[in-house]
Amino acid sequence: MTRSPLPPSTPVAEPGHSRASLTTRLRNHFFAGILVTAPAAITFFVAWKFIEFVDERVAAFIPEQYHLPVSIPGVGLLVMVALLIGIGAFATGLVGRILFRLGEQLLNRMPLIRNIYGALKQILETVLAQQSTAFRQVVLVEYPRRGIWAIAFITGVTEGEVQNLTAQECVNVFLPTTPNPTSGFLLFVPRQDLIVLDMTVEEGIKMVISGGIVTPPDRRPEEVRRVPLVDTTEEEYAGGHGPRRVVPAPNGTESDATASANGSATSRPRSLERA
Description:
Strand order of the largest sheet: 4-3-2-1-5
Order of helices and strands: HHHHEEHEEEHHEHEE
Number of strands: 8
Strand content: 15-25%
Radius of gyration: 29 Å
Helix content: 40-55%
Structural class: alpha+beta
Distance between the termini: 89 Å
C-alpha cells in the first residue's frame, strides 16, 4: 500500500481557491495603493492648478518687457503675496487709513455696492480676527426634530432684535450641509439646548464633508464615556416632553434633567464659551 506524501490533516488547496485568494490580495493591494496615493495626488493637482491660475492672472497685469525669459511656477503667487503685504502695510499707516476711510464712505453711498461690500467686510473681519471665537466650537443641535442630532458650529452670540424677541439667551449656530459645508442654515438656538463637543473645528468639518466616514476619536476620560449624555425614550416623546439628559454628577452618579416643552434649562457637562 502506497502512503500519501501529505499528512492526513493537511488540507489540499484547490486551484480555484488559490486563484480567488490571489485575486483578493491583488484587489486589496490595489485599493491600498489608491488610499495612499490619491490624497497626495489630488492635493498636488489642486495646488498646481491654483498656482497656474494665479500666475496667469498676475502675468496679465505685468508689462511684457518685465517678464522672465523662463517660466517659473509660483512667481505670480509670490508677487501677489508681496502685493497684499504691501497693501496691508500701507492700510495700517496714517495716510492709508485716511484714504481707505474715504473709499469706504464712497462705497457706502452706492445702493447695491454698499450691501455687498458691507456683508463681505463683516464676514472677513469676523473670520480673520485673531480674538474671534467664530467657528471655534463644534456643537450638537437637535435638527430637524427632537431625537435627531446634527453637527453645527457656533458663530457668535445672538444680539439685536432677534435676541430681544426671544425669551432665552440664544447662540448663532451655522448648520452646514453634506458634503458641501459652504452652504447650510443659520439657526438661533437657546444656549442650554446645545451640547459642546471636544473635537476641533477641522475635525468637525472633515466629518461633515465625509458624511460621517471620517469620525474623530473620543478624547474624554474612559469613565466619562460610559455615561450617556442624552437618553431618548419613547414614553417621554409620547407625553410631549423632550429627551431625558443624563448628566454626570460630581459624585460619579447620574442625574436626570428633562428638557420641558417650555424650554427649561438643562444641565451641561461643559459650558459654552461666549463669543
